[in-house]
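Sample entry was shown:

___
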Amino acid sequence: MAIIRNEALHKQVAAAMRQSIATGEWPPGTQLPTETDLAETYGVSRPTVRLAVAALRSEGQLDVKQGRGTFVRAAVHGPSASLERTIATQGDTFSTPFDAWFDHAEEPTVYRTRTDAITAPLLEMDQDELMLGCDRLLANPIGAGRALHRLLLPMERIEATPLAQQPAATPTEAYTALATAGHNLTWHERVSARVPQPDEREALQLSEAAVLLIAHRITCDQATGLPLILEETRLGAETTALTYAIDAHKPKRAKASR
């Protein structure tokens, strides 16, 4: 490798390695040579090689498999699956395309928790209010992709409904319980993204360069607008896309001022 002056060595090595991947010299699944061999190939030190490998890992081009080595990662051309974020209803019964994921879930974890700086505004509550929580690790039954799902129930708002005794209910079971208790429901959803935490990356089997999608769905009483349920769904943007059906509505007319 010809050394270019005034450019960091590890960047030059990373560029050379990137070229080897792009040209097919190192096809997907190839195990990289050892640090010692790479250092000899490029005429640099092992720490320099280590920095170059780290750069390619952060780009999602390399995967490190514990105890096995570093491998060229298959190119990602977009999510391989999609999750439609719609809700169907028939009477007091609800269904969603997400239901099938709950048939491929690990055992739920139910716990007591309190509202915090994130959940309190979404539920229109003060911080430190009591809630019931239920966490599940879900799997896409027809393709790649996992999801971490969290269902939060504000105690003061659901204690008079069957949900107070059913904190491990799935979302559609929870909607049905509220409808049976006399609530007409409406939903709001927002999506954000961030870098996953190490435990999220491991649970969702994401690459080091993956981005985490976070969908917060709020179930509200239609008459009062009061939030009754908060759901948080976390999944990898590289494996699953969220899709939405959008209906056109007439704009609300502003009230005339007196």
Observations:
- The helical segments are 9-22, 35-42, 46-58, 99-102, 119-123, 155-158, 171-180, 198-204.
- The radius of gyration is 24 Å.
- The chain has two domains: 9-72, 81-243.
- Residues 9-22 form the longest helix (14 residues).
